[in-house]
Amino acid sequence: MKYDDASWHYGGNFPKDLPESAGATHIGMFVAWALLNGLAGNRHEAENAADLVKLRERRETPGAWFIRCCDEKFIDQDLSRQGNAFARAYYGNEKTPYLRYIDDYSEVFATATTLYHVPDTWQSYDRLALVISSRYQTFTGG
């Protein structure tokens, strides 16, 4: 199952002043959070282990890592069973997109011109990660 695809964003009503990579930032932030919080699927644990180290060591931004390692597509194979359960409930998928995630993303980055104008930086990630972590705790009952 495909949750999201950067081409869905830069292929639509996308700001002309931004590179296409800005269409992947919001996706990369969520995927990075999931992988950094123990929800990686076998695809990344086995096949992309060295790349996962780069993400953990913050040698590459979440969006750039996502573009390079996931070919701009967020799919169920990126996550573990628990990760997929959370993604379905919080992130959504191609049939029910952005349940609460995009609302949280919009709120965290309310001063950005558009959702696509959020910088692909670890500072942005750190702000958003607090909210995702809180949503995950609620999801797991923790």
Report on this structure.
By secondary structure, the chain is mostly helical. 55% of the residues lie in helices and 5% in strands. Strands 1-2 form a two-stranded antiparallel sheet. The longest helix is centred in the C-terminal third of the chain and has 19 residues. The protein is globular and about 35 Å long.
Key descriptive features of the protein:
142 residues; single chain; two-stranded antiparallel sheet; mainly alpha
What topology emerges from the helices and strands here?
Layout: E1 2-5, H1 6-10, H2 25-36, H3 42-47, H4 49-56, H5 62-70, E2 73-75, H6 81-91, H7 101-108, H8 122-140
Mean pLDDT: 92
Order of secondary-structure elements: EHHHHHEHHH
Number of strand segments:
2
Q: CA-to-CA gap between the ends?
A: 27 Å
Shape: globular
Total DSSP helices: 8
- Largest sheet properties: 2 strands, antiparallel
What is the radius of gyration?
14 Å
- Oligomer state equals single chain
User: Low-confidence segments, ≥5 residues, pLDDT <50?
Assistant: none
Name the structural class: mainly alpha
In percent, how much strand structure appears in the residues?
under 5%
Helix fraction by DSSP (H/I, runs of at least 4):
40-55%
Major β-sheet strand ordering: 1-2
